[in-house]
Amino acid sequence: MKPETWAPHVTVAAVVERDGRFLLVEEHSPAGLRLNQPAGHLEAGESLAQAVIRETLEETAQPFTPEALVGVYMTHFSRPETVDGPASGVTYLRFTYCGSAGGPRIEGRALDPDIVRTLWMSADELRACPERHRTPLVMQCIDDYLAGRRFPLDFVQTHSVGPSR
């Protein structure tokens, strides 16, 4: 039997600030309703910038323009052994971008099924409810953004590879 290949889950997230408040989503998660930045998984064939634009639109119905990379974060979640299977875990590699959400929400555009609503919160309001965060990265990304962490968009290079010869 061939061993299973390990691979981290690549995700993207968007930090959007407007008038001192941050765009967040309230979403269903395995732990209940939680707050998160607009975020999701990289899909085959897209760049990280394309993924964060798509995910932000799908989760907030607002167009997003990435302006800089805030950081790259790796998190590992362990899952204990259960009657259904052995102990396991999952590793996420998250690329967080900051930028602007252009204009009002696109009327009539449905949000992803797990998204309950979008909301704007200050950093202090978000800091006051860590138990509602999807992961500790929610606050970490905002703190890094507020500290001025910015990398140019071309810090992450995307190269297409054609058919092998």
TrEMBL record:
Q: Tell me the InterPro entries matching this sequence.
A: NUDIX_hydrolase-like_dom_sf, NUDIX_hydrolase_dom, NudJ
Q: What is its EC number?
A: 3.6.1.-
Q: Which cofactor does it need?
A: Mg(2+)
Q: Which CDD domains match?
A: NUDIX_Hydrolase
Source taxon at top rank: Bacteria
**Keywords of the record:** Hydrolase, Magnesium
Q: What are the transmembrane regions?
A: none
Which residues are in coiled coils?
none
Q: Which GO terms describe its molecular function?
A: hydrolase activity
Ranges for the Nudix hydrolase domain? Answer: 7-143
Stated family = Belongs to the Nudix hydrolase family. NudJ subfamily.
Self-association state and partner proteins as the record states: Monomer.
State the name under which the record lists this protein.
Phosphatase NudJ
Q: From which organism does this entry originate? A: Paraburkholderia bengalensis
